[in-house]
Amino acid sequence: MTPRSAAPGSITVRVPAKVNVQLAVGAARPDGFHDLANVFLAVGLYDEVTATPADELRVTCAGPGADQVPLDRTNLAARAAEALAARYGRRADVHLHIAKDIPVAGGMAGGSADGAGALVACDALWGTGASRDELLDICAELGSDVPFSLVGGAALGTGRGEKLAELAVGGTFHWVFAVADGGLSTPAVYREFDRLTPDAPEPVASPALLDALRTGDPTALAGALTNDLQPAALSLFPALTDTLKAGTEAGALAGLVSGSGPTTAFLAKDAESAERVAAALRASGTCRTARVAVAPAPGATVV
Ligand SMILES: C[C@](O)(CO)[C@H](O)COP(=O)(O)OP(=O)(O)OC[C@H]1O[C@@H](n2ccc(N)nc2=O)[C@H](O)[C@@H]1O
Ligand SMILES: Nc1ncnc2c1ncn2[C@@H]1O[C@H](COP(=O)(O)OP(=O)(O)OP(=O)(O)O)[C@@H](O)[C@H]1O
After folding, report:
1. Ligand 2 in contact with 60 (CB < 6 A)?
2. Is the Cβ–Cβ distance between 155 and 167 less than 8 Å?
3. Cβ < 6 A, ligand 1 pocket
């Protein structure tokens, strides 16, 4: 494929959002993180990160929710560029532009996508020749969800979610995402989980869920969707109960909170049903907007 560059000498990388089709959460570890059985599925909503040579590191962002994205060194895209530059003993002299389409603070790994995208873009721009394993190591340092943003498709994440085993997916799944008014902080949702779940068992991946992914059967997948963070997200954001009700009443096979929320995800039977559910959600007054997307989607890709 011929890369389409935004400007001469620049590299653009497209990175997908994710939904957790299973999120089994164990007890808090001594380091504050939680062991997970985290079944990630990449969905076709994308951010694009463009890296262009510059005098110094600079981040810009445009798109829905861009005003909530930090443009300083705390941005995961900036941190990714700095981590790669440090490893290869060079300056992070790059302008990173984020074209945002993944809901911000929505539990869909938008910031993680930008981290993975910036890493792949800078790697290509600088010609570091880093191996995929090296890039995945940097991703894991940046955040628990970042390795999956690089890999895409479907994967089981263990440890804090950063140790990935890729999974086979036997078909296309049609999703609807209801974007909430407002965001939820991931650490706050995990803290609420700890409060609500004093004796969390060891997290284990569900064989029925892995089977449903493998066969591509939406009804089987709908019956196996689980998110241990959902009670915590609903406790902090009770209005999401109304959104979940609106989506399932509109004909979704099932609905659940996406990751730490507050985006809610609905699995539909097919593309037409997904459009109907999205229209009903938009009309319901229980969310800011609704988006349809198919899964699985590829990981971070130079476009
Ligand atoms: C909810 C999920 O999105 C599901 O995929 C992830 O578990 C969160 O991943 P993330 O946003 O990349 O999280 P990180 O940046 O690694 O960690 C942010 C905070 O979330 C909490 N955290 C995250 C991952 C994990 N396995 N256990 C945790 O307790 C910790 O409080 C941590 O300080
Ligand atoms: N590139 C970025 N894009 C969006 N938010 C970022 C970025 N870098 C840092 N952040 C910060 O991270 C916070 C969480 O944003 P993000 O969109 O990643 O949430 P999320 O989708 O809920 O994450 P996750 O699903 O991985 O828990 C934001 O409120 C913002 O302050």
Report:
1. no
2. yes
3. 20, 23, 32-34, 36, 38, 107, 109, 112, 143-145, 160-161, 186-187, 190, 259-260
Domain containing 108: what range? 11-167
Pair 78, 118 in one domain: yes
Amino acid at 82: E
Q: Give every CB contact of residue 1 below 8 A, 6+ residues apart in sequence.
A: none
The closest residue, in CA terms, to atom 4 on ligand 1 is 259
pLDDT in tens, 286-302: 999 999 999 999 999 99
Distance 7 CA to ligand 1 centre (A): 35
CATH of the domain at 45: 3.30.230.10
- Atom 9 in ligand 2: residue holding the nearest Cα: 75
C-beta neighbour count of 194 within 10 angstroms: 14
- 160 and 181 part of one domain: no
- State pLDDT tens for residues 83-94: 999 999 999 999
CB atoms < 10 A from the CB of 256, how many? 24
